[in-house]
Amino acid sequence: MQKRNIKTNVRLILFPLFLCLLLLLIQKWVNYEIDKPSRRCGCICVDTGKGQCETRCGIEYSTLKQGFFCSIPHPTEWPLLLQVPAQQFRAVRTSDHLVSSYGDLPGDSCKKTGSCPVTMLITGNNQTFGQSVAGNMFSKPFNNINSSDSLYNLADNALGSETETRFDNVLDAAFLLNAPIDFLQPQCPSNFRFSLAFRLGSDTLEKDVRCSQVVQLWRNSSSEINDVLYRGYRKGNSERKINEILAAYDFVNSNDNLFNVTVWYNSTYKNDKGSQPISLTRLPRSINLVSNAYLQLLLGPTARMVFEFVKEMPKPETKLRLDFSSLLGPLFYTWVIVQLFPVTLTYLVYEKEHRLRIMMKMHGLGDGPYWMISYAYFLAISSVYMLCFVIFGSAIGLNFFRLNDYSIQFVFYFLYINLQICLAFLVADWFSSVKTATVVGYMMVFGTGLLGGFLFQLFLQDSSFPKAWIIAMELFPGFSLYRGLYEFSQYAFNGNYMGSDGMRWNDLNNSNNGMREVLIIIAVEWLVVLCVAYYADQVASSGKNPLFFLRKKPKNLQSSFRKPSLRRQGSKVFVQMEKIDVDQEREKVEQLLLESSTSHSIICNNLKKIYPSRDGNPEKFAVRELSLALPEGECFGMLGPNGAGKTSFINMMIGLVKPSSGTAYVQGLDIRTDMDRIYTSMGVCPQHDLLWDMLTGREHLLFYGRLKNLKGAALTQAVEESLKSVNLFHGGVADKQSRKYSGGMKRRLSVAISLIGDPKVVYMDEPSTGLDPASRNMLWDVVKRAKQNRAIILTTHSMEEAEHLCDRLGIFVDGRLQCVGNPNELKARYGGSYVFTMTTSQIHEEEVENLVNQLSPNATKVYQISGTQKFELPKDEIRIADVFEAVENAKSRFTVQAWGLADTTLEDVFIRVARGAQADSTLS
């Protein structure tokens, strides 16, 4: 069947490959967009002098924007800077915060002229010492600038900048942006202005240097400084917080022999989008200023501690890459993997909806082998699916697969596909329609991906969300799958960005890595769901009692066989309807149940089936206390009108429904408890053909023959004989798919399936329905040959078929067996009259009636129209010779157009018994 489903399976395998290709194309397009020249290190073409052009790349050939992407083996050296508050935010005497209580601050009128000084605060235990040290910080005048070595000359001065810091210090923003550099001095010369030009790569930078006055103010304690700094914490542009003070120093207990200082530095000027702390870029000059000032106090103005520059660490060329497939991996790959769930689910529900599983079970396939075979098949398909998925994803270069350890991926995917298969078995018990199961299955596919991507991932990325709740959510299999894929994607993305490996086994020990807990959850759920699914299958699909695992099995077959149930539950109405032959059959059953052994293959003891009331309708008695015994080699025919309960009886015998009370024994096994063993010796031709559309007739018989333990040459021979017996062997019919069969051909195939493997008991529910006369006669010959060594129960509406095939007949009306016997006995018992028919002209009808009354005074007219009359003549009142003599005499008196004398047919018996039973039921 899977060979014929090859196109479907190929499409299933190609779906993840298509998705991988789609992600790859998107990744290529994204890489193309971000790999444009503006996002790469600058390059130029240099003439080598030989008419050739040599491409040279580097930061010296790059614009400022390109310089970020260049390799920097020798980072630029930048002078140290202080973080200077902007003019509009420098500390003044204002009325909107408490710094106004300090009269030594400048007035706010300086903001209008842009001449506000920069404030530095000082405190300590020794005011004289502290002010002396602070006085040396900005005492050095601005040096002459040598244009060839301008950066080094700048490093000797106390410089600052109002600019914000950058994410890195390879290119300091103070020298790149259009903002002046501040030269900090206690007093600024009039009209001080200086312009500095230097080259950076291919660009020439020009910076203005301006003088900014520094005011050093003493405070009595560090708490007072804290209060000033706190009060001066202001809002700047774009709601950013800034501080009004340049820096503050607490000399604590410092003296000539002890240098102990605490520095407050201005860390409020930083980029909120992820800049480094200010201490890495603007703090070093604060430390160097106070250290040099202390040395100069001790050793003189010529002493200094040289701190010429700061620079970033060397770095390789930066390529902007966005691993798009890893970012979208959790969502898309969740859809790819969970897609297997509806595929498995619909397959299981299809077998359930079309009763193919119960058909296999009725021919000997136990629940254990069915689970093992189905599970192994789904596991093989899923494994091939995932293997192709990973191999193809790795082959086309998706980092999601290449960077993460393949052994971790194997364990994760293997555990999850096993859990998913078990879930499909469990959920299949809730559905009886393939369409409904398909819709729900694919809703789960897309719902799982969307909930994972737009809900669960938010919780994963929220560090404040409790980990216990994360684990609780991962108990839902879809979220545990998403969490595992999310971890793979994060390690792949970071590995691609950092140029390192993805997830390795030792990474599972990382507390931030949720893969270990996911593997544990999936493994435990796999085992739990497997057990629950098998239990639910036994209760729902197999119809076992919910506590079946507590039932003690009988020690041997005879202990099961000898369980008489002699208690009759019939009402008085039923007693009145009892027939002698039915009573005799019941007594026979009771006697057989008391014997230690019997040759009877089937024994039904007070079998009853009642369907409960629904939608206001009363309960339905489908089968009423049926007792029946069938020996080996007998074909028993069940006749009855539609709705009489024949199919319900067959369904109880083949295990489709459980009896409400009573039981039956097949080969000594109780149908209530031992159906699994009964199936091994049973064949069934159901009322409706239960066939696989994709399998041929030969393949059906090969399959069911194997279930009956036929192998090798014996199996081949049995299949060919079966095909020939039902006329499906020649003309290539045996190798056509059953969906191409006509209704009659399917019926013949169903009969062949029921008889293959030499079953000891066979049930045939209207086997000749839809057959042409020739095929029906051929089928009758097959059944007659087959009944020699087995018991057959056959239901039919054809009286001719019943008379031709059945050794005994039972007429079933309103759920109750009305009579039992062979056809001749029933005709003799219920057909004790001849049917006399004569056609004359209408003027002679009265003479015909007189003739009949003379032959039989108790004759009954049953039909009259246009001169044709029909009469029933009791057999005990006439002789056939008298009838012929009377007709010859009548011909001499009037014209007899036609006449006939017939015995009672089985059809007449059936109609009489059915009408009588229905009339008795109505009167009762």
Q: Class by helix and strand content?
A: alpha/beta
Indicate the CATH class of the largest domain: Alpha Beta
> How many beta-strand elements?
26
Shape, principal axes of CA atoms: rod-shaped
Describe this structure in words.
It is built from 32 helices and 26 strands. The protein has four domains: 74-299, no CATH class; 324-540, no CATH class; 564-798, P-loop containing nucleotide triphosphate hydrolases (Rossmann fold), CATH 3.40.50; 832-903, 2-Layer Sandwich (Alpha-Beta Plaits), CATH 3.30.70. It is 44% helix and 16% strand. The protein has 924 residues and is of the alpha/beta class. Strands 3, 4, 5, 6, 7, 8, 11 and 12 form an eight-stranded mixed beta sheet that branches. A six-stranded mixed beta sheet has the order 18-19-20-15-21-22, with helices on both faces. It has a four-stranded antiparallel beta sheet with strand order 14-13-16-17.
Short description:
This is ABC transporter domain-containing protein. Helix content is 44%, strand content 16%. With 924 residues, it is of the alpha/beta class.
Task: Tag the structure with descriptive keywords.
924 residues, alpha/beta, Rossmann fold, 32 helices, 26 strands, rod-shaped, ABC-type transporter activity
List the helices and strands and how they pair.
Elements: H1 6-34, E1 43-47, E2 53-57, H2 64-67, E3 81-83, H3 110-113, E4 118-123, H4 127-135, H5 150-154, E5 159-161, H6 173-176, E6 181-185, E7 194-200, E8 203-218, H7 222-231, E9 233-235, E10 241-243, E11 247-250, E12 262-265, H8 284-299, H9 324-338, H10 340-353, H11 356-362, H12 367-395, H13 399-402, H14 406-428, H15 434-461, H16 467-474, H17 477-498, H18 515-540, H19 557-561, H20 572-577, H21 580-594, E13 600-611, E14 620-631, E15 635-639, H22 646-653, E16 661-666, E17 669-670, H23 675-678, E18 682-685, H24 697-707, H25 712-725, H26 743-755, E19 761-765, H27 773-786, E20 791-795, H28 799-805, E21 808-813, E22 816-821, H29 823-830, E23 833-839, H30 845-855, E24 860-865, E25 868-874, H31 880-891, E26 898-902, H32 906-923
Parallel strand pairs: 3-5, 4-8, 4-11, 6-8, 15-20, 15-21, 18-19, 19-20
Antiparallel strand pairs: 1-2, 5-6, 7-8, 9-10, 11-12, 13-14, 13-16, 16-17, 21-22, 23-25, 23-26, 24-25
Membrane topology: Multi-pass membrane protein
Signal peptide: 1-32
Keywords: ATP-binding, Membrane, Nucleotide-binding, Signal, Transmembrane, Transmembrane helix
